[in-house]
Design goal:
Structural class of chain B: mainly beta
Helix content of chain B: under 10%
CATH superfamily of the largest domain in chain B: Immunoglobulins
Structural class of chain A: mainly alpha
Number of strands of chain A: 0
Strand content of chain A: under 5%
Helix content of chain A: 55-70%
Radius of gyration of chain A: 27 Å
CATH topology of the largest domain in chain B: Immunoglobulin-like
Mean pLDDT of chain A: 85
Low-confidence stretches of chain B: 1-31, 308-314
Number of strands of chain B: 23
Mean pLDDT of chain B: 82
Radius of gyration of chain B: 36 Å
Largest interface: A-B, 28 and 22 residues
Number of domains of chain B: 3
CATH class of the largest domain in chain B: Mainly Beta
Shape of chain B: rod-shaped
Order of helices and strands of chain B: EEEEEEEEEEEEEEEEEEEEEEEH
Oligomer: heterodimer
Distance between the termini of chain B: 93 Å
Strand content of chain B: over 45%
Order of helices and strands of chain A: HHHHHHHHHHHHHHH
Number of helices of chain B: 1
Number of helices of chain A: 15
Largest sheet of chain A: none
Largest sheet of chain B: 6 strands, mixed
Chain lengths: ~300, ~325
């Protein structure tokens, strides 16, 4: 009889040893976006929705809602909850909040993040403090409707607004700063790493160049025009100014003419008739893949 | 409209029947038409013909006629009349005159034009100084009417104004409210006709208080609304809330009345849209139009970040 019990125990232990406690140790970490962690997304979504008393969901409604969110694959709940929270806390109609958040759960995470961050930057009193309707519209334009890289755009927008409203820098009015950020970020896609650094250094160049003698408003307008011609335009502008004003190189133009010439030259920095190169494969994904390979080895 | 009067005259019965004339609007000239009168004599055995004499109140003979029938129809002016009669037999022998019986011929009933089921009311607004509304009431001309007696009834059916006039229209100044009016024609010798109600009601709207200036003072972090200084009026108000992207407004506070010189939003209002409205109120007046001001309460960054940390465990 004892033998029989031992056999049974060993059999059970043997089976337990065979089953993996953590799938990640055995299988490749799946980075293929087609495969979704829907169970986690569903569970988190359900628990979140059922807690939202103002949403007034019954259990079946919460299940239905959670299924809709989970359907949007890995990260859907994070995307949903970010957008939901920012709108709910701002006093948006709760049904509309749910619908918009659900829509954002279906986009990539950077788009949801854009809405979450940019809406706050536009709407909140300590940032641009614009009216709800405008903030809501622009936030959509710069997130779900944006054709380029949302993270790059967000980074540019946030930094430009901070730089513009900072009393140590320009200390400009909130409305002017919003307009400036919107104008400049239209060209973010021309810059591989965003245009903020180029903008900042170009502004420093114009403001410190005493011979040009621009007011802040003129300097900003010039910056927008030059930066709109791509990442090589600021350098072309600077080089032409230096060349035109240089007494040693015979050109020796007066400041106004030098400026006009530099504008013409920098305007030619962008050729829209030529095709843009194919976007490079994201670096982060490659690193992850290498790590996964090491783990397997 | 028929009206019968029976009078016993010896062994006769006189019945007068007054037939209405055709109404004629807008004329102030007294009607020349006569009221229709019917006399019914009680049949008398052996009576071959009937002879009738009609006098006015001053005993002037107005009419004299002979009829084979005991029912006579004739036209008469309104007022007090005296009637006597006698019978004639087949040989022309006349009986004795009856004694004179006094009776009255009233003017015909007034006929307002055929009204719709719910005719629109006669409307007027009260004047801001007198607090009364002025209306011009009119009525059709009555046959044999020499004057008219107009009565105005309030909503409780009490007469609140009355006036006697020769005209077919009169002005009245009334307090705010709903009224009806009636007109009774008055004939000769001040004989009253039948009181007839006009089909239209009279509506006097209260005068509306003019809106005073509410000054909005918006500083960087503070909203204030300065109340107008008016000692004789009260200021009422309400605060309403709506979510963004919604047009359903729900009341938050009522101010009845609001007595402070300045209004500022209550602390701890949840984020969303707000609409504060004020209006002036005074007894006997219609409230002024509402002054509205919309504003938005925004969350702080901390409030949003705090909620962001409330995440569900993974």
């Amino acid at each position: 009889m004892k033998k029989i019990w031992l056999v049974i125990l060993f059999t059970v232990w043997g089976n337990a040893a065979l089953s993996a406690p953590d799938d990640g140790l055995l299988y490749d970490k799946l980075t293929d976006p087609r495969f979704c962690d829907t169970a986690d997304e569903f569970r988190n979504s359900y628990l979140f929705l059922i807690k939202q008393s103002d949403l007034g969901f019954t259990e079946p409604q919460a299940v239905k809602g959670a299924i809709k969110i989970a359907k949007n694959c890995t990260g859907a709940f994070d995307r949903f909850s970010q957008v939901f929270r920012v709108l709910q806390k701002s006093g948006v109609d709760i049904k509309k909040t749910f619908d918009v958040a659900l829509e954002y759960s279906s986009f990539d995470s950077e788009r949801a993040r854009n809405f979450y961050v940019l809406f706050q930057r536009l709407f909140l009193e300590n940032y641009l403090d614009i009216d709800f309707t405008t903030a809501y519209r622009i936030s959509h334009e710069l997130s779900k409707d944006y054709k380029g890289d949302p993270a790059k755009l967000r980074d540019d927008f946030v930094k430009i607004v901070k730089y513009c409203t900072d009393d140590k820098e320009f200390g400009l009015g909130k409305k002017l700063c919003m307009e400036l950020a919107l104008k400049l970020t239209k060209y973010t896609e021309l810059y591989p790493k965003g245009l903020y650094q180029d903008f900042q250094s170009f502004m420093t160049y114009i403001q410190t160049n005493k011979r040009l003698g621009f007011s802040l408003k003129e300097a900003l307008n010039l910056a927008v025009r030059v930066l709109s011609k791509g990442p090589k335009a600021p350098r072309n502008f600077k080089k032409t100014i230096d060349f035109a004003l240089d007494k040693g190189d015979k050109l020796n133009l007066p400041e106004l003419q030098a400026f006009q010439l530099a504008l013409i030259i920098s305007d030619h920095s962008f050729d829209p008739t030529k095709k843009a190169p194919e976007p490079e494969k994201p670096v982060i994904a490659t690193v992850d893949e290498k790590k996964d390979e090491k783990n397997l080895k | 409209m028929k009206k019968k009067m029976k009078k016993i005259l010896n062994s006769f019965v006189i019945t007068t029947l007054f037939l209405s004339g055709v109404p004629c609007w807008g004329q102030s000239k007294p009607s020349q038409k006569l009221s229709s009168v019917e006399l019914q004599w009680e049949d008398s055995p052996g009576a071959f013909m009937y002879e009738v004499e009609i006098y006015n109140s001053k005993s002037k003979l107005l009419k004299s006629f002979v009829s084979k029938s005991s029912l006579f129809k004739f036209k008469s002016t309104s007022g007090k009349i005296k009637i006597r009669g006698r019978v004639l037999d087949a040989y022309g022998k006349k009986g004795l005159w009856s004694s004179l019986i006094e009776t009255e011929v009233p003017p015909d009933d007034l006929k307002f034009p055929d009204a719709q089921e719910n005719p629109p009311p006669i409307q007027a607004s009260t004047h801001s100084k007198t607090l009364k509304g002025k209306v011009n009431l009119n009525w059709p001309e009555g046959v044999q009417a020499r004057r008219y007696f107009v009565k105005i009834y309030d909503a409780n059916n009490s007469v609140i104004k009355e006036k006697e006039t020769r005209n077919l229209a009169e002005n009245f100044e009334l307090d705010p409210g709903t009224y009806r009016y009636s007109v009774t024609p008055i004939g000769n010798d001040k004989v009253l006709g039948k009181e007839t109600f006009a089909p239209q009601r009279v509506q006097i709207g209260a005068a509306q208080l003019p809106l005073a200036k509410f000054e909005v003072i918006q500083t960087q972090n503070r909203l204030q609304i300065k109340m107008p200084r008016k000692s004789d009026v009260e200021i009422f108000g309400e605060l309403e809330y709506a979510y963004h992207l919604s047009e359903t407004w729900t009341p938050v506070f009522k101010y009845d009345p609001f007595t402070e010189p300045f209004w500022t939003p209550e602390g701890s209002l949840k984020p969303g849209r707000y609409r504060v409205g004020f209006w002036l109120h005074k007894a006997g007046w219609e409230d002024s139009v509402k002054f509205n001001h919309e504003f938005v309460i925004k969350p702080t960054e901390k409030e949003i970040i705090d909620t962001e940390t409330i995440t569900v465990e993974k």
